[in-house]
Design a protein that fits this description.
heterodimer, A: 327 residues, alpha/beta, TIM Barrel, 2 domains, three-stranded antiparallel beta sheet, 8 helices, globular, B: 67 residues, mainly alpha, 51% helix, extended
Chain lengths: 327, 67
Amino acid sequence: MAFNNVQCGLCPKNCLIPVGESGDCRIRVNIDGELLAVAYSRPCALHVDPVEKKPMFHFIPGTTAFSVATVGCNLHCANCQNWEISQQPPDKVPAYKLLPADLADLALNAKCRSVAYTYTDPSVFFEYALDSCVKARAKGLKNILVTAGYLNREPMGRILGVADAANIDLKAFSDNFYREVCGGTLKPVLDNLVLARGAGVVLEVTNLLIPTLNDSDKDIKALCGWMAANLGKDTPLHFSRFFPRYKMKHLPPTPLKTLLKARDIAKGEGLEFVYIGNVAARDGGNTFCPACGKLLVERAGYAVLKNVVEKDGKCPFCGRAIYGLWK
Amino acid sequence: MKRRSFIKSLAACAVSAAAFSAGIAGSALRAAARAGDVLAKAAGKLYPGPEKKIDMKDIEKTGPWLG
């Protein structure tokens, strides 16, 4: 039986999977010596969300994204906010039947401009996301990946090739954090962030600040400095507020002052578009022109109250190009 | 003499273990497909969980999940 093991090459875990068992993600299974994606065409979550919820603030603002997820994840973050679907085996989670072509039709019927592969991680429902991206693009829809970016380089390159935008979590600028809190490693994520920015998709980054674990001035400065140097100062960064969930109920929610401090540090490192999410904060979700300082997009929660960025992506006041896709 | 023979046996064991591991890894690599080519052939039919029906009224609501 040992000789019917299969090795999954999708993510850096490269699981060696015995017959009848699954990889660490729970949904890639060795069935009689063949590696199969059992959640293919079986999403457990389908919703129409504002694109701002992903969060994507520089990608066709004010539109909706048809959001899809299957069960499973290759990381096991102790603070996971979506653990009821990401950290469960597939036999415990009800799922729809929806082929990639039907998914695209459903998104069009719901008048969405894009499909977002989100909530859990398209890294693990890779084949379904990849095929769905192709079908969606053929029907004029945009594709958004919302991911932890914990994928091997070759599949990451392939899925970026059919995506238009990505919000990639940079959970901390610490390998220890990735190992101890998430069951992963930092380097593949950094490599994939660079790959994504180079691939030409609209890239935004999210960093969830967890009290005592990744919220020191030193950690935040290191993360922002790396982003400015490796992704470009115009890459949007979202600092997100932590709430006690799953296996991390012993920590308090992130104080507002920590989020405000993080925003100041990020701006000090030269990042041009820094947002604060999961909390009501003055100007937390607003976009300002980095050149003239004028307000370009005003947001309240996920709602866009005002957007004056020109369709070609320029500031109407000074003509500065604003990173993103605006029409 | 005894010590030498013990070391030889130990070395032989190590070689066998390495060969066995290589065998497993080799077989694993032969069986594995390139990431992205791994498709459930009977799309959707291998899912072990319960099925739920698509209800647009439910889908058109913003989801409870983050992201």
